[in-house]
Structure formats: structure tokens, C-alpha cells
Amino acid sequence: MRLLRWLSAFLLVTLAAAASAQPTSHPAAPPALHAGDQPFHRGVNVLGYDPYWKDVAKRRFEWRHFREIRAAGFDFVRLNLQAFKFMDARNRLDPAWLAKLDDVVRHAQQAGLGVVIDEHDFDLCSNDLIMCRQKLPAFWQQVAPRFANAPRNVAFEILNEPHAQLDAAAWNGLFSQMLAVVRHTNPTRIVVVGPTSWNSLKELPTLQLPADRNLLVTFHYYEPFHFTHQGASWAGDVKSLHGITWGSVADRAAVAADFDQVAAWSRANDRPILLGEFGAYDKSGTPQDLRVAYTAAVRSEAERRGFGWSYWQFEGDFIVWDMVKDRWVEPILKALIP
Length: 338
Ligand code: BGC
Fold this sequence. Notes:
This protein has eleven helices and ten strands. By secondary structure, the chain is α/β, with parallel strands linked by helices. Residues 9-21 have low confidence and may be disordered.
């Protein structure tokens, strides 16, 4: 009995000594983003207009495309979700749709890609604020918890391109409410947010952000719009334009000057930048060499300033992947990843 007591005392002392010999572990600093950080580097927008969401049998995008995207040198996708139409009268998302979302994120991750989960009901939201104030929080209440344990390279983008009724004041208010919804289950998840007027860089000064260190600020760039959207049916007056060229010294200087403005804002506000969309429409006859020159210039001006970027878009229109030929559009791909 005495031996037993002695033995257990010995054991206790030895264990305590071993424990105190461990290097003192400091609690890890909470993650934080600052100007110049690039949690995402080279990305592409995917699945925004794919029949997958309605009818899996009609899908164009397959899981192997994630592997193609990774192998080509991209490190993330921006996943464009038009989820409102999959909500019932009480704004509950269809469980089948949620399962499809889980599948997409899982397969992207298995391919080694980060994912920016982008709520893309921007026209619906911007044109009907009353509806948006119901559906957008319902979306994030249901979607955010599903990814509470996801790795750092899964990010949430609250809403693509706010505009119209979502002017600066309305958007700043709505965004901080949405961030609170997300923070409930995802205290340090990277949240992507851009200014009103379709994420225009000109509106960066109107963006008022909560004191939260895990925000990644985004803008979209389609300037000059009469070049990038010439002949595009949804582009207002620009839809009847054709034959607009791009590539002069002045054209290039304009991109550089615009991006300098973004970089200056980023430094002044200590926020990192993601150029979430850019590209030039491909279905109205704009010569490919002009689109390639434009795409390469925008991409490299972004990288020069330390912005992450995601090209608009993988396939459908503005394509970098040709679904019919089942291969990359090499010149556009080279413009993105030389
Ligand atoms: C929209 C697309 C459009 C693209 C370029 C995106 O945000 O969702 O419908 O083609 O911008 O205009």
C-alpha cells in the first residue's frame, strides 16, 4: 500500500515536471487582414448561370472543371449564387439547393481551391429593398452556419454589386446588419464587401465599414464600359455600339490611374483589395486580340498593386473555358496566367 502511494506520488511529480517542461504556448493571435494582404490571388467566377442549380442533369459545369481550374494556376473560385428563387414563402432555402451548395464547396476544396461564396441577387435586392431586407438576412442565417468550421479560404461575399435603392447610406446600413448575422456563427470568417454603384471604385470613399479586421474590400472593373460591354444586350445605350477599340497609351494610363486610386484608398483605410470581376464581352464581335490585351492589362495592374482578382467568368459569356470544345480559351487564359 505504501509502495503504491509512493509510486503514485512519484508519477504525479514526474508528470507535472514534464508538463512544465513544455514550451509555453501563447494563444494564437486572432486572424486579421490589412492593406496589402492577399488571402485570394488568382480566381475565376463560376456557376452563376449554370442549369446545375435547377436540374443537375442539365449541368454544364462538372467537378472535373475545378481540377482544370486549379491545374491552370488559379487558387480560388468566386461562386455566384442566385439563391432567392430557391426560397419558399417563409424564405427557407430548399434543402436540395443547400445540399448542392455543400457539394460545390466540397468539390472546389477537394480540388485545392478557395471559395468566395457570393450572393448574386443584386438586381432583385437593389430594386426592392423591402424584399431584400427579408431575404438577404434569411440567406446568411441559413448559409453561414453551414461553413462555420470551413477553412480560412472559404469567404462570404454578402451581396454582389449593390446599386439603385441600395445607395451608399442604405448599403452601409444593410451591410453592417448582415455582418452581424454572419459574425454570430463565423466570428473571423473573411467577409467580402464592395461599394455601391455596382462595386464601383468611385464609390469607395462612401463605404463605411464596421471595425472588423476580417473584411476584404472588393471592386469590379469594366472600364471603359463602352469597350467592355459593346453589343451586350443588358448594357443600356452601349448595346448598340460596335467597333470600339482599346489599347492606346491613354487607355492603359486610365486603368493605371483608376487602380492607383483604389490602392491609395486601400492604404489610407488599411483594407486589402479583391478585384472581384473584370473582362470584356465576347459575343458581339469585339476582336479577341483586343479583349486579350485588355484582360492582360487589367490583371497585371491589379497584381502590381497587390490586389487579388477573379475573372468574369469561367464559361457562358466572357468565357475563358470553352464548353463546346471542352478546353481553355488559351489566349484569354494566358492573359490571366501568363
Ligand atoms: C452579372 C452578369 C454580367 C456581368 C458583366 C455580372 O455581375 O451577374 O450578368 O454579365 O456582371 O456585365
